[in-house]
Structures are given as structure tokens and as C-alpha cells.
């Protein structure tokens, strides 16, 4: 019974639950909401899929950027490696260039003016020298004895007479000058061929240089082409001389080197202090409106001073004194009543610092300073050091060495050839420079008297080589092998070598004329020497009379 009642109740409850009418009306929308949920789920799924795609794209982009960065880092590393390799190559190249430059300087100092052995020199000679009949030793000795040695015995007497008169003239010059306003003149110095005992050309002319200095409180401050300032090629070998007060700053103020502008004023130097009256600087022989010493003004002052000095002492002498050459302001001539005359050159110079290098305005008869850039440019002369070098080397040479004889013979031959065919670009200074280079390059024993013929050939071969290359370097400038005993200024030893044949590069006409004259001299050499040669005993030619040289 109780089980039946339970079954009935369960049936009733099931019927009620399964009866649709028993639920409210809104429950009929449940299926629609399910579809909306499904639709939203699909939309959510699509959104998640799109977001996943974006994330995948972003991840791919980041990976691409990472790869690009890694690639850039690799390229940078490779670039650094290449730069390191390039820097190493650059450094290696610089080392090579430095070694080449050092070799070039050594070559120019010693080997560029290469004298070499006699066998090496033969290869340098041109066709003009081949086939030339060179005089033998006997002819050269006889020629030297008759034509050169006999004519040079009066040089010592002429030097003594000129030096004595020059000292008296300069002493008179000091007395007529105003010590408070005029330049102060020092004692004269003999230079050149007359004082190196190799001059052969008559008339014998002594060359004297006279250092001078400005009156107190002024001083000279010089600048050369190798002192650090830029000089154009045509001004190499020159310098300028500035007249300054001794209390001025040696280094100078920047206002003297830079244009400050119209509205700017130097606090150290007022306009009143920096600007000097034009007349004051002209009285100090400066170029107009500058502080630079004017060579033309100096020569005019010196001529006037010499004239006044001569007027004071002329009564003491039985000869006349006059200026002999218009183009050489320091050329003087002594005229005796007998008609004979003695010429000499006396030229004012300025000392370079505390050395024996001098600034000189004119080179009488040498042509070395024919084309001055301006009258404020002064040429530097090393004549005192050249004389000292010859004296120093002569002490190490054999007795009666032939170096001076070679230079005298070569100078004579060149002078004779120029008298026949006209002047050339070669000067006696060029010939002396050749001898100086050979004196430094060859051993002392090579200059023995019996080797006169060989050394003369060396000089001719060396000169032809220089003419062919258009290069003959100044003996002192750029020569690091100058003996320390001379006390030569180091600034000129470290300078670039100065090519004395540079005008030949610029003037082809002069170069052609010079080469033709040189070759003509070679061809006429035997004839010129034989003209002054007399038969000589064999014993003489074998060296018995060695004392003649």
C-alpha cells in the first residue's frame, strides 16, 4: 500500500513537471538566448583568432628586427675589423713613406750629390764628354805652373794693402757718423776666392763684408725662409730683418699678427705705442711705412758714409777712390797716379743671431742675388763658414793637395770659354760648391798631388751630372754632415736642401746656353791648356817639382 501511494505521487509529480503550461511565458526565450551566447562565443573566438594573428605578426616583426640588429651588429663588427686592418695598412704605409723620406734626405745630403767611384761616374757622362781628349798630368802641371801659379803670387800683397786701407776707411766712417742716430759699423771680414786662395781671374778683386747694427735702443730681429714661416719657392735662401726696440716683446703680441677689426683695441698696445713716425723708421733705413730694413736704403746710406769718410782721410793718400760699378753699390776702385788701379768690394751685412751667417743685399759679380723678391729681402751668405771649412779640411789633406789647383784650373777654363762664346748660367760659386761636395765625399788621400788629373775629371763629371739633373745643392743648407767644429747653426742643417740650379728649371734658354757652353769647354779644354803649356822634363812630370802646387 505505501509503495502504491509512492508510485502515484511520483507519477503526478512527473506529469506536472512535464506540463508546458505550468511554466511562465518568458521561459520560452531560453533557446534564443542560447543562440545569442553561441554567436557571442563565435565572435569571441574570431576576436581571439585575430588577436593571435596580430601577436604572431608582432612576434614575427620582433624576430625580423632582432635579425636586423644582429645583422647590423655583424656588419659593424666586420667594419671594425676592416677599419683595424685599414689602420694597420695606413700605419704601415706611413712607416714606408717615412723611411723613403729619411732615405731621400740621406741621399740628398750625401749621395744625391753622389761622387761615387770613377767607374760609376763614367756611366753618368753624356755623349759630349765621350771622345774628348783629356790633358794628361804633365800638361796640367805645366799649365798650372805657367798660367795660374805665376799670376796668383800677388794676391797676398793686394789683400794686405786692401785690408789696411779698408780699416782706415771704416775708422774714418765711424768718426763722421752720429753715434746716437746712425748705424754702428764693425770691422770688415775678408771672404771669397781671394781669401780662399783660388782666384785666377785678373784683376784681383777683394771681397769684404762689414757687419753693422742699429743705434740704441733698437735691435735687428731676423726671419729666414726656414724659421717656420711660409716662404714661396722663389724666396728660399732669403730672409727679412725687422727693426725693433730692445724692450719690445720678442714673441710679439697677437695684435701684430691678426687683424683685430675697427671696433677692437689691444689692451697691451695702444695705437700710440705701436705706431711710430714714418720719418723715424726711414731714418733707421726701413722700407716706407714698415719696420723692415731696406737693402737699397742701406746701400745709399753706406755710399754716403764712405764718401764722407774718404773726404776726411784723402789727404793722407796719393791715390783717388771712386765707385767703380753702378750696379754694385759697394764696388770701389783705387786709382794710382801711375795709372794702375786696385778694385775691391765692401758690402754692409747684418749678422744672423750669434752666428757667422750674414744677410747681404748685393753679390757683386756673382749673380747669386740678381732677382731679389723685394728690397726688404736679404740673401744669406755662408762665405765665412765656407772659408773655415776649406781651412779645416786642408789640415787633413796630404801636403800640396790638389783641391785648390783643380778649382783654379776649372775656373780658368770656364772663364776662357765664356770669353769666347758669351756668359753662361754657371758661376765660380757653383764651381766652388762642386769642390766642397767632393772634399766632403772623398777620402783625404784621394787629393794627393799625383791625382790632380783624376780629381779634375771628377769635378767635370760631377758638374755634368748636376747640369743633366738640374740639381746642385747648396753645400751647407740641408747638409747634416757639416763638421761640428765649425759651429754651424743647426737650423740650416735641418732645412730642406737648397737647389742652386733651380733657375735652370724656370729658364730653359739659360739652361740650354749653359749646357752648350759647358760642352764646348770640354771640347776646347786640351787646346786651351796646350796653348799655355811648354815642354817639360820627364823628371818634373813625375813629381820632382811637387812643391809648385
TrEMBL record:
The keyword Acyltransferase does not apply. Its main location: membrane. It is found in: Cell membrane; Nucleus outer membrane. Keywords: Cell membrane, Coiled coil, Glycoprotein, Membrane, Nucleus, Signal, Transmembrane, Transmembrane helix. It comes from the Eukaryota. It is a single-pass type I membrane protein. PANTHER family: CELL FATE DETERMINING PROTEIN MAB21-RELATED, INOSITOL 1,4,5-TRISPHOSPHATE RECEPTOR-INTERACTING PROTEIN. Belongs to the ITPRIP family. This is Inositol 1,4,5-trisphosphate receptor-interacting protein.
Amino acid at each position: 500500500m505505501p509503495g502504491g501511494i509512492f508510485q502515484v505521487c511520483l507519477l503526478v509529480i512527473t506529469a506536472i513537471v512535464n506540463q508546458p503550461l505550468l511554466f511562465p511565458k518568458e521561459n520560452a526565450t531560453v533557446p534564443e538566448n542560447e543562440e545569442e551566447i553561441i554567436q557571442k562565443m563565435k565572435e569571441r573566438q574570431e576576436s581571439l583568432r585575430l588577436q593571435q594573428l596580430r601577436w604572431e605578426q608582432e612576434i614575427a616583426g620582433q624576430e625580423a628586427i632582432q635579425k636586423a640588429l644582429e645583422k647590423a651588429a655583424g656588419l659593424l663588427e666586420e667594419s671594425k675589423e676592416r677599419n683595424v686592418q685599414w689602420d694597420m695598412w695606413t700605419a704601415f704605409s706611413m712607416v714606408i713613406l717615412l723611411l723613403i723620406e729619411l732615405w731621400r734626405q740621406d741621399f740628398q745630403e750625401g749621395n744625391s750629390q753622389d761622387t761615387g767611384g770613377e767607374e760609376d761616374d763614367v756611366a753618368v757622362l753624356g755623349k759630349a764628354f765621350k771622345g774628348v781628349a783629356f790633358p794628361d798630368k804633365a800638361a796640367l802641371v805645366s799649365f798650372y805652373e805657367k798660367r795660374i801659379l805665376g799670376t796668383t803670387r800677388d794676391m797676398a800683397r793686394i789683400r794686405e794693402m786692401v785690408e789696411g786701407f779698408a780699416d782706415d776707411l771704416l775708422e774714418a766712417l765711424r768718426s763722421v757718423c752720429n753715434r746716437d742716430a746712425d748705424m754702428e759699423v764693425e770691422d770688415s771680414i775678408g771672404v771669397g776666392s781671394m781669401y780662399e786662395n783660388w782666384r785666377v781671374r785678373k784683376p784681383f778683386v777683394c771681397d769684404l763684408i762689414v757687419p753693422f747694427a742699429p743705434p740704441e735702443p733698437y735691435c735687428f730681429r731676423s726671419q729666414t725662409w726656414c724659421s717656420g714661416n711660409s716662404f714661396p719657392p722663389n724666396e728660399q735662401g732669403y730672409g727679412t730683418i725687422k727693426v725693433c726696440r730692445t724692450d719690445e716683446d720678442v714673441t710679439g703680441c697677437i695684435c701684430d699678427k691678426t687683424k683685430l677689426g675697427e671696433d677692437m683695441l689691444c689692451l697691451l698696445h695702444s695705437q700710440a705705442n705701436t705706431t711710430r713716425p714714418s720719418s723715424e723708421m726711414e731714418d733707421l733705413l726701413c722700407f716706407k711705412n714698415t719696420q723692415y730694413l731696406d737693402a737699397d736704403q742701406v746701400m745709399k746710406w753706406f755710399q754716403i758714409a764712405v764718401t764722407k769718410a774718404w773726404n776726411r782721410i784723402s789727404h793722407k793718400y796719393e791715390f783717388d777712390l771712386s765707385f767703380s760699378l753702378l750696379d754694385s753699390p759697394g764696388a770701389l776702385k783705387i786709382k794710382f797716379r801711375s795709372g794702375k788701379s786696385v778694385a775691391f768690394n765692401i758690402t754692409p751685412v747684418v749678422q744672423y743671431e750669434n752666428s757667422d751667417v750674414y744677410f747681404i743685399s748685393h753679390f757683386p759679380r756673382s749673380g747669386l742675388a740678381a732677382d731679389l723678391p723685394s728690397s726688404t729681402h736679404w740673401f744669406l751668405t755662408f762665405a765665412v763658414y765656407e772659408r773655415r771649412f776649406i781651412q779645416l779640411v786642408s789640415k787633413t789633406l796630404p801636403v800640396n793637395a790638389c783641391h785648390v789647383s783643380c778649382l783654379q784650373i776649372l775656373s780658368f777654363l770656364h772663364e776662357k770659354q765664356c770669353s769666347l762664346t758669351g756668359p753662361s748660367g754657371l758661376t765660380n760659386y757653383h764651381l766652388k760648391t762642386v769642390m766642397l761636395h767632393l772634399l766632403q765625399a772623398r777620402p783625404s788621400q784621394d787629393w794627393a798631388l799625383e791625382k790632380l788629373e783624376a780629381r779634375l775629371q771628377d769635378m767635370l763629371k760631377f758638374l755634368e751630372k748636376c747640369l743633366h739633373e738640374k740639381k746642385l745643392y747648396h753645400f751647407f743648407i740641408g747638409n747634416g754632415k757639416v763638421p761640428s767644429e765649425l759651429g754651424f747653426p743647426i737650423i740650416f742643417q735641418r732645412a730642406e736642401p737648397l737647389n742652386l740650379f733651380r733657375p735652370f728649371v724656370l729658364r730653359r734658354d739659360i739652361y740650354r746656353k749653359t749646357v752648350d757652353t759647358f760642352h764646348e769647354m770640354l771640347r776646347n779644354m786640351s787646346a786651351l791648356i796646350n796653348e799655355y803649356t811648354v815642354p817639360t822634363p820627364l823628371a818634373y812630370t813625375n813629381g820632382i817639382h811637387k812643391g809648385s802646387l
